[in-house]
Design brief:
Length: about 260
C-alpha cells in the first residue's frame, strides 16, 4: 500500500457522498492518505468545506466561486470570502477560473469574477486554485496580469502551456485523466512538468481513473494516477507520492512537519 497520498483537490461535500461521507473520510488515513484539500465551487460550498476541514484533522479547504457560479458573485461575496480566509483551515482562493465548455455564465462575467478573485488572493497573500476548461488564452492573459501563486488544477493544456505556467512559478496538478486511453496530449504535458512543480489530485467524485472509470472517485484512487505519472517521469510511484506530498505542503504553505 502506498503512503503520503496528498489529494490537492477534492469535493467531499458533493451530494454523491451524502450516503456514506463520514465512512469514506474516516477510512482514508488507513489507505495512505495524509492530506486532502476540499475545493469550494460557490458560497455554499465554502461553508460546507470549512465544516469538513474543522471535523477532520487531515482535511483542509479552499474558498472561492467557480466560473459556473459566476453570476451569483457580488461585492458582498468578496467580503465573505475574505472573512472565510481568516480560518486557519482555509489554504487558498479557489476554485476560480474560466469555463468555456458549458458557458453557464457569460464569458465577460466569468472574466470579471475571475479577475476580482485573483486580486483578492493577491491582497490576502494566498495561493489560488485555477479551473481552466477550453479557455486557455484568456486564462493565461489573466494569470500574466495578476501573477498569482498557486495551482492549475486538472490541467488540460498543452506541453507549451505547461512550460509557461511553470515559468510563472506555479504548480500543475493532474488527476485520473492521465490514465485514460485517449490522453496523448495530456501525457506530453506531464513530461513537460518538472517534479518539483507536480501535484496529484482526484477532483472526486469526478475524474475517476482507469480501471474504475464511471464509478465514484475518492482519494485512495490517486494510486492509479500516481503509477501512470511515475511511469512517465521515470521514477517509482512511492517516490512520486513522496515528492508531490512535499510539493503540496510548499504550494499550500503548510508547516513542513505536517
Amino acid at each position: 500500500m502506498y503512503q503520503n497520498i496528498f489529494d490537492t483537490h477534492a469535493h467531499y461535500d458533493d451530494k454523491r457522498f451524502d450516503a456514506d461521507r463520514d465512512k469514506v473520510l474516516a477510512s482514508l488515513p488507513e489507505k495512505g492518505v495524509v492530506g486532502v484539500v476540499n475545493a469550494a465551487c460557490d458560497m455554499a460550498s465554502c461553508e460546507t468545506g470549512i465544516a469538513l476541514a474543522e471535523q477532520y484533522r487531515y482535511i483542509y479547504c479552499t474558498v472561492g466561486v467557480h466560473p459556473h457560479a459566476a453570476q451569483e458573485y457580488t461585492p458582498e461575496c468578496r467580503e465573505k470570502l475574505a472573512a472565510y480566509a481568516k480560518n486557519n483551515r482555509v489554504l487558498a482562493i479557489g476554485e476560480i477560473g474560466l469555463d468555456y465548455h458549458y458557458d453557464f455564465a457569460p464569458r465577460d462575467i466569468q472574466q470579471k469574477v475571475f479577475a476580482d478573485q485573483l486580486a483578492l488572493a493577491k491582497d490576502l497573500d494566498l495561493p489560488v486554485v485555477i479551473h481552466d476548461r477550453e479557455a486557455h488564452q484568456d486564462t493565461m492573459d489573466l494569470l500574466r496580469k495578476y501573477q498569482p501563486k498557486g495551482i492549475l488544477h486538472c490541467f488540460s493544456g498543452s506541453a507549451e502551456m505547461a512550460k509557461q505556467i511553470i515559468k510563472m512559478g506555479m504548480y500543475i496538478a493532474f488527476g485520473g485523466a492521465v490514465t485514460f486511453k485517449n490522453a496523448h496530449k495530456l501525457l506530453e504535458a506531464v513530461q513537460a512538468v518538472p517534479l518539483d512543480r507536480l501535484l496529484v489530485e482526484t477532483d472526486c467524485p469526478y475524474m475517476t481513473p482507469e480501471p474504475f472509470r464511471g464509478k465514484r472517485c475518492d482519494s485512495s484512487m490517486i494510486a492509479y494516477t500516481a503509477e501512470r505519472l511515475a511511469e512517465l517521469q521515470g521514477i517509482l510511484p512511492q517516490s512520486l507520492l513522496d515528492i508531490t506530498w512535499e510539493n503540496a505542503k510548499a504550494v499550500y504553505e503548510l508547516d513542513s512537519t505536517f
